[in-house]
Amino acid sequence: MKVLIVGSGAVGQVYGLALQNSSVELGLFDRAANAEKLLRAREQGGLPLYQVSFAHRKNPVLHRLKDYEVFTEVPESLRFEPDQIWFTVPSQVYYTDWFRDFLRQAPTARVVCFTPEGRRSEFFAQGSGDQVVFGGTTFMAWQGSLENSGGTFEGIHFWRPPLAIPLSGTQNASSEIAQVLKRSGFKVTLGKPDSHSQAAMTAVITAFVAGLELSGWTLRDYHKSPWLGRAAGAGGEAVMGQLPRIGIIGRAFLSNPVLSACFTLAALLLPLLFPFDLQKYLKFHYTKTREQTQKLLEIYLKDSAARGAPVADIQKLVSELQLASEIKAGNR
Q1: Averaged over 257-270, what is the pLDDT?
Q2: How far is CA 180 from the centre of its chain?
């Protein structure tokens, strides 16, 4: 079995390590600048990955990702003849012509995209996409040490909670991906190709994080911030644009008072459930991936508006995050 991972960041490396441990032949595809680092690391004994757990909070377990080939061009990577291609790239990549061209050049490979918003028609040219499965990522991974604000300590840190990775696609395609994931030590749940649950969950998380950023990344005081109510409202609006049908109970749950209460409880209780500083992780990770957050919010804005759902709170988050990005860029 050969698997090509497109994107060798934190998520790609964790998946790569799991595949390596299940004797999969592994290829990593990335930009030339990153490829040099990958090759250098392989020569020096492999990429270091540190697994965090409740038993190893301060002294995470060191692993090495060392058995892989490196590619920087699509034709070159396809000569590797992968049985499966796994995309672990930021969301915005899936909307590009580059991604669609990649799929066209790999007509026989089984493809899995670990994208938070799930399947969208914009990802594919007409008539393509049958080969593709969409999956969520249930572990957390980051570059460097959170205690040193991230990025200053060599290697990837990651935490793999005992959660199942959701897959959605045709039965045959999903089963093929699931078999490899299970052999690599992951739990898996299979959904239908038109499943919207992953997109709805991501919509709520994205709104929660956007409000947290505008509140100064302080979980403990998030409930005092005026942005919590705005974020809860945006979460409800966003979900209405992702789910085709919402009943009375669902609409009640998505109301601002209920979601505000859920966001408050999450801000207070979630830090107790992680073997690392969740607040530092959220700030480090989502500051790094702000472009993806903004892209997702713009998608939710478009989808909800198309279905006639309210969008005022999403619009406010989008505009304020854009303003924050412009201010930050101007201060550089």
Answers
A1: 96
A2: 19
Q: What does the pLDDT look like over 81-115, one tens digit per residue?
A: 999 999 999 989 999 999 988 988 886 779 999 99
C-alpha closest to that of 250 among 263, 236, 262: 236
